TrEMBL record:
Vacuolar Fe(2+) uptake transporter. Pfam families: VIT1 (PF01988). Residues 36-47 have a biased composition (Basic and acidic residues). InterPro entries: Ccc1_fam. This is Vacuolar iron transporter. Residues 36-55 are annotated as: Disordered. The lineage of its organism: Eukaryota, Viridiplantae, Streptophyta, Embryophyta, Tracheophyta. One of its GO terms (biological process) is intracellular manganese ion homeostasis. Residues 1-15 form the signal peptide. GO terms for cellular component: vacuolar membrane. One of its GO terms (molecular function) is manganese ion transmembrane transporter activity. It is found in: Vacuole membrane. Keywords: Ion transport, Iron, Iron transport, Membrane, Signal, Transmembrane, Transmembrane helix, Transport, Vacuole. It is a multi-pass membrane protein.
Amino acid sequence: MVLTGFAGLVAGACSMAIGEFVSVYSQLDIEVTQMRREGGRENGGDREETENEKLPNPVQAAIASALAFTIGAIVPLLAAAFIGDHKVRLGVVVAAVSLALVVFGGVGAVLGRTPVMRSGARVVIGGWMAMAITFGLTKSIGSSGLQM
């Protein structure tokens, strides 16, 4: 279980980082192109203003996404690693992850200067939905096997 959890952690962090990098790099391309168009309409534009513009950084976004995923994946892995009984393990994982979602949602809301209750609830509910879907798929594949 620990080995599978760790493999999922690494695979998920890599997937999130690559997806975030591609997404933010596409956003960067669009913003740079838009600034060039707008600058061209204004007789060449103000080059200094374009250079001082805050643009997204794909590498920073990828690192942040991989780190966030890794921290989020460590919580259930550690919560489950030392508990043998399946039902107890399931309850501990749900409780630990729910607490982590509340903390992560609150921290994200404070950093983003958004309403803590609304943002926190969105993170918790989204996390619960992801856990339920993952649990359901794992149970259905695990009990019936993957037929190809």
